[in-house]
C-alpha cells in the first residue's frame, strides 16, 4: 500500500481527507513525515521508518543509530531496522554492514546467530572408533569432527595398561606385557607363581607376591627374612620394624635393640629415646655391685639416682654402715628410702651382711630401717642399745654397747607389673640421721 506524506500545504485537501480514510486524525501525524496508511492512534510501533502509533515520533524505543556489538564474530555496528520490524545490529545478518560468514568448526560463531559450531554436533555424545568408548564430538579442522575417545581425540587413553582391555584400540589387549601369564620365581618367603596384572594396572606382579591373587606375604618385621617378598630383607623404617618386638628399639642385622647406653621405653616414639643410667655394665649382679661407700652413725648420708633401664634390668649397690664406739647410746640406725619414685614404679630389696647374709629378695621396699637406737622395752625386755654401757658388766636393764657395723646389698628394679618408665628414681642412704620412732 502506498505511503502518504504531510498535507500541511494543502489544508483544504487535508480536511477533506477524513481520519476514516488514513487512520490519523487529519491524515497527517503532524510530524512532517510519511505515515503508514494502516496507522492509527494506539497502534504498536515497529521499526520501519514510520510513525505507526501516530504519536509524532518514528521508531521510538528501538535506539536506531545507537552503538551495538554484533553476536559472535560480527563486531561493532549501529542499530537499524530489520525486515521483520525489529532493530538489528548493522553488522549482523541482513544488516547494512553484514559481517557474517559461513559457520565452520572452530569454536567461533561466524554466522552470528548466538550458537557456535551448531552445524557440526560439537559436544554431542558419540562412540569412539575401534571400541574406544564413549566420548563427544569435537572439531579436528574447520570442516570436520571426530569422537573425543577415538585415537587422536582429547579423551583417547592412548597408552596400553595391564588390565585385560584394549586401551590403545589396536585390536589387542595387554600386548605391552609379553610375560603376562608366564612363570615368576620365588622371592623371600613367597613361592613361585605366575605373572598377572597388578590391581592398580601399573604393570605386572607375581601372583604369590603382595597384592597378587595368591598373596603369600606377611608384614615385614625385624627378623632377617624378606617377609613381604620385595627382594629386600627387613626393609622399612628400623623403628617401625621393632614396634611389636618386646625389646623395641631399632632393627639391625635382623635383631631389635638399642645402642649401648639407650633403651626404648615409650613405644609411641620410634627408636631408643631413653638414656640408660647407671651404665649398663655397672651393678649387674650382687657379686659385681656399684660400691656406694661407708657411712658411720655420726649422721652421714648420700643419694643415688638411676632408671634401671632397659626394662627388666636389676641394679645392685653395696655400702657399709659403720657403728662407731659408743658409751651411752648406740646411734646406729640405717635407713634406705626413695625420695623420688615416679609413679611408684620402682622398688628395692635388701641383703644384710652382704650377698651371703640375710636377703629379703621377695619383699619389695620403698622405705627400710635397720636400727639399734631403740629406746623402749617390750614385755620387760630391752630391745635396743640406747641406753647402753661399754662396761664389762652393764648395769641392770642396760644393754652392752656392741659393734653393729654391717655391709648391705641393695637391689633396685622396676616393680613387677609396673609400666616401664625412663624417669629416674632417687634413693637416700643414711646412718645415724634419723631417730627410731616405734
Mean pLDDT rating: 86
Give the class from helix and strand content and strand pairing.
Answer: mainly beta
- CATH architecture of one domain, by name, is Sandwich
Helix content: under 10%
Rg (C-alpha, Å)? 54 Å
CATH topology description of one domain: Jelly Rolls
Shape category:
elongated
Strand fraction equals 25-35%
| CA-CA gap between termini | 139 Å
Major sheet attributes = 5 strands, mixed
Q: Care to count the β-strands? A: 26
Indicate the low-confidence ranges by residue numbers: 1-33
Number of helices: 2
Order of neighbouring strands in the sheet with most strands: 14-16-25-18-19
CATH class of one domain: Mainly Beta
- Element order: H for helix, E for strand: HHEEEEEEEEEEEEEEEEEEEEEEEEEE
Describe this structure in words.
The protein has a domain at 290-431: Sandwich (Jelly Rolls), CATH 2.60.120. The strands form nine sheets. It has a five-stranded mixed sheet, with no helix packed on it. Strands 15-26-17-20 form a four-stranded antiparallel sheet, with no helix packed on it. The longest helix has 6 residues, at 11-16. β8 and β9 (204-206) form a beta hairpin. Mean pLDDT is 86; it is low at 1-33. Helices cover 2% and strands 28% of the residues. The protein is mainly beta. The radius of gyration is 54 Å and the shape is elongated.
Amino acid at each position: 500500500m502506498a505511503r502518504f506524506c504531510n498535507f500541511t500545504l494543502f489544508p483544504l485537501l487535508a480536511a477533506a481527507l477524513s481520519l476514516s480514510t488514513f487512520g490519523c486524525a487529519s491524515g497527517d501525524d503532524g510530524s512532517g513525515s510519511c505515515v503508514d496508511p494502516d496507522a492509527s492512534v494506539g497502534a504498536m510501533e515497529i521499526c520501519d521508518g514510520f510513525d505507526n502509533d501516530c504519536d509524532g515520533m518514528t521508531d521510538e524505543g528501538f535506539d536506531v543509530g545507537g552503538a551495538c556489538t554484533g553476536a559472535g564474530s560480527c563486531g561493532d555496528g549501529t542499530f537499524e531496522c530489520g525486515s521483520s520490524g525489529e532493530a538489528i545490529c548493522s553488522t549482523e545478518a541482513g544488516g547494512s554492514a553484514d559481517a557474517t560468514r559461513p559457520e565452520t568448526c572452530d569454536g567461533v560463531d561466524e554466522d552470528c546467530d548466538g550458537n557456535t559450531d551448531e552445524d557440526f554436533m560439537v559436544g554431542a555424545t558419540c562412540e569412539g572408533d575401534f571400541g574406544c568408548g564413549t566420548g563427544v564430538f569435537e572439531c579436528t579442522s574447520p570442516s570436520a569432527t571426530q569422537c573425543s575417545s577415538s585415537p587422536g581425540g582429547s579423551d583417547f587413553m592412548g597408552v596400553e595398561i595391564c588390565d585385560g582391555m584394549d586401551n590403545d584400540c589396536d585390536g589387542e589387549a595387554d600386548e605391552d606385557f609379553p610375560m603376562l601369564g608366564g612363570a615368576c620365581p620365588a622371592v623371600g618367603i613367597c613361592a613361585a607363581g605366575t605373572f598377572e596384572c597388578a590391581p592398580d594396572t601399573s604393570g605386572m606382579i607375581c601372583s604369590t607376591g603382595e597384592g597378587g591373587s595368591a598373596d603369600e606375604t606377611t608384614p615385614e618385621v625385624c627378623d632377617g627374612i624378606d617377609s613381604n617378598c620385595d627382594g629386600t630383607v627387613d626393609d622399612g623404617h628400623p623403628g617401625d620394624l621393632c614396634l611389636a618386638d618386646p625389646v623395641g628399639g631399632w632393627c639391625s642385622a635382623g635383631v631389635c635393640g638399642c645402642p649401648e647406653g639407650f633403651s626404648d621405653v615409650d613405644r609411641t616414639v620410634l627408636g631408643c629415646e631413653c638414656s640408660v643410667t647407671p651404665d649398663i655394665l655397672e651393678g649387674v649382679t650382687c657379686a659385681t655391685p656399684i660400691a656406694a661407700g661407708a657411712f658411720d652413725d655420726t649422721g652421714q648420708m648420700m643419694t643415688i639416682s638411676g632408671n634401671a633401664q632397659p626394662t627388666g634390668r636389676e641394679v645392685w649397690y653395696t655400702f657399709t654402715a659403720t657403728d662407731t664406739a659408743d658409751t651411752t647410746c648406740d646411734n646406729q640406725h640405717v635407713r634406705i628410702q626413695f625420695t623420688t619414685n615416679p609413679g611408684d614404679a620402682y622398688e628395692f630389696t635388701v641383703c644384710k651382711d652382704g650377698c651371703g647374709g640375710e636377703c629379703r629378695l621377695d619383699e619389695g621396699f620403698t622405705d627400710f630401717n635397720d636400727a639399734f637406737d631403740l629406746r623402749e622395752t617390750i614385755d620387760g625386755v630391752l630391745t635396743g642399745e640406747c641406753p647402753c654401757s661399754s662396761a664389762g658388766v652393764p648395769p641392770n636393764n642396760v644393754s652392752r654397747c656392741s659393734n653393729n657395723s654391717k655391709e648391705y646389698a641393695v637391689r633396685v628394679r622396676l616393680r613387677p607389673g609396673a609400666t616401664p618408665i625412663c624417669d629416674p628414681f632417687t634413693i637416700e642412704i643414711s646412718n645415724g640421721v634419723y631417730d627410731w620412732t616405734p
